[in-house]
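Shift notes (night). Ran S1/P1 Nuclease while the centrifuge was going.
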Amino acid sequence: MFNLTTATKTIALSLTMLTVISSNDAVAWGQNGHRVIGEIANMHLTDTTRTALQPLLNGSSLAQISTWPDEMRSNPEHFWRKESGKWHYINIKDAKKMHQYVNPSIDSRDKVAHILDGIYYSINILKNNKSDLESKQFALSFLVHLVGDGHQPFHAGRSEDRGGNLIKVSFFGKDTNLHSTWDTHLIENENLSFTEFADFIKTSNKKTIKAYLNSQPADWLIESNKISHRVYDENETKLSYGYVYKHMPVVKKRLSQGGIRLAGLLNQIFDKNAKPLTEALVKKRG
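Came back to this:
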């Protein structure tokens, strides 16, 4: 199983919910959504990447480690209680400026200010041959998780409503909020296990895969921001069958994109022969 130090092995008995600002009130995609993304990613790994990941996974799967950063929010250490929350989201007024927030050389955990920093920090740790096993395991789990977070639209939503957490809605008559609806309720409404869900939405269409891989992390956050604002503009509060019919295709696409892009990113890191736009992300622009 996933193996870290004694301090970081302490997994909460109950899941502490993650915020899009600073309080603990929502987890991106919930457990099932993150696991779907991990499961889909596993389908698209090259053999070289799969081999390279074995010592980091230590018997676990990408799906299993995908929820670890959320589960650790109950750990009493300062990082988990006070610092880790900001890794999971970004709020900016103009999504067109998203690429300006990319710091591809970030190599210190203390400098992480938002999800893009968290993604690139994790990438750099995994690429660094001097990184120890524990650091790489930490980085891998966060990378798997944050790629998932980046595809949940409200992790690039508005700061004033905490990414939809403060927008009260009802889902089939039960009180909740907009963020939780997209995190969990839409996915759980399908009544599928994460393996069933992943199997239902998987694709081998080369054109689709190429389109998804023709991107970088900032692009994923721009997409999420645009989706969140379309949903904001609809201003729906009583959600039921019509809402599911309209938005489940979006949820399924984001989960599929997240899984394929996670695999593309991991292949890019661990397999120098992985083909861009087929197995790996497009090469860095500029």
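Strands lie at 168-171, 174-177, 238-239. The domain at 6-270 is CATH 1.10.575.10 (P1 Nuclease).
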